[in-house]
Amino acid sequence: xxxxxxxxxxxxxxxxxxxxxxxxxxxxxxxxxxxxxxxxxxxxxxxxxxxxxxxxxxxxxxxxxxxxxxxxxxxxxxxxxxxxxxxxxxxxxxxxxxxxxxxxxxxxxxxxxxxxxxxxxxxxxxxxxxxxxxxxxxxxxxxxxxxxxxxxxxxxxxxxxxxxxxxxxxxxxxxxxxxxxxxxxxxxxxxxxxxxxxxxxxxxxxxxxxxxxxxxx
Length: 217
Fold this sequence. Notes:
Blueprint: H1 2-17, H2 26-29, H3 36-46, H4 56-74, H5 76-79, H6 85-97, H7 108-121, H8 129-134, H9 139-146, H10 168-203, E1 208-209, E2 214-215
Antiparallel strand pairs: 1-2
Helix pairs in contact: 1-4
């Protein structure tokens, strides 16, 4: 309301802008005077405000900007290295969104979780749980994972997982990991077959002539 508006203007001048000397602020402080609008209009001219007193929203924004600029000028060293609260909250949110940043690998719960996951996915276990993780994080494994592959889309609902973790999201993740594991096994089987063929070619008797139905010359 009008009283709050006038108090606000007086507070800005007294606390932040301080364009007038203290003894010259009397007319502006007399908020109940009928002449206050004239005092306010003079004040706006004195601080070089480009807006008219009827444009209250614009006037308030401009005076606040002036107050902030003067406040910063008086305390530049204090504010120059400050981080906005919004940015701090954003950093905290980002950290909270990435729980692995503060992960304690020596936590017994983490160790138990790794072993439990290995059991669920039926992958080979190791006495040292960190070795199990490192095997998946070698430079070769990372490079292989970085290679883009084109394949056919897979309908996960058509594949039976064989166990239930009690969480639909984890079940789906387990299905994906199992399918990837099966793909790796198939690649391994293909390489084994190729190795067998190569060995057979080496040890085969070059003198054998199946067309003649005999061995040797």
